Amino acid sequence: DEGSGLSRENRISPRAMLAVLERFKPYALFLPLSKGCRIKSGTMNNIYSYAGYFVDKETYDPFVIILNQSGNNRGEALDLMEHIYRKSP
Q1: Of the N and C termini of the chain, which has fewer Cβ atoms inside 10 Å?
Q2: What is the pLDDT of residue 4?
Q3: Cβ atoms of residues 10 and 1 within 8 Å
Q4: Could you tell me if 67 and 77 are in contact, meaning their C-beta atoms sit under 8 angstroms apart?
Q5: Which residues 6+ apart lie within 8 Å of 44 measured at CB?
Q6: CA atoms within 13 A of residue 86's CA, in its CB half-sphere
Q7: How far is residue 82 from each of residues 11, 41, 70, measured CA to CA in Å?
C-alpha cells in the first residue's frame, strides 16, 4: 500500500516471507548482524516482527517471527528459536 512497507494494508504471511528470504540470500550481508543473526526488525502498534537468517559458518538459514499482540516478546521468541537451531544436528 505504501512504498516504505509500513501500512496495515500490506500483508504477508510468514511462509511468504520465508520465500522472500530464500531469494534474498545472496544479499544477506546487507542485513545488520546482531547476536549471530542477520536480522531486520519491524514494529507497528501491537505488531512486532523479526526476519532474517541464523548464521552458521557460511550457511544462512532463514527465520520469520511475526507477533500480533500487545507486548513485545519477539526477542524471547528469537532466543528460543536460536537455542533450538544451535542444538539441531
Answers
A1: C
A2: 57
A3: yes
A4: yes
A5: 6, 8
A6: 10
A7: 25, 16, 23
Per residue in 23-70, pLDDT (tens digit) is 999 999 999 998 889 999 988 888 899 999 999 888 999 999 999 888
SS (H, E, C) 25-70: HHHHHHCCEECCEEEEEEEECCEEEEEEEEEECCEEEEEEEEEECC
Q: Amino acid identity of 1?
A: D
Task: Give me the sign of the Cα torsion angle 68, 69, 74, 79.
Answer: negative
Give the chain's largest Cα–Cα span. Answer: 42
Asked whether residue 12 carries a pLDDT value surpassing 60, the answer given is yes
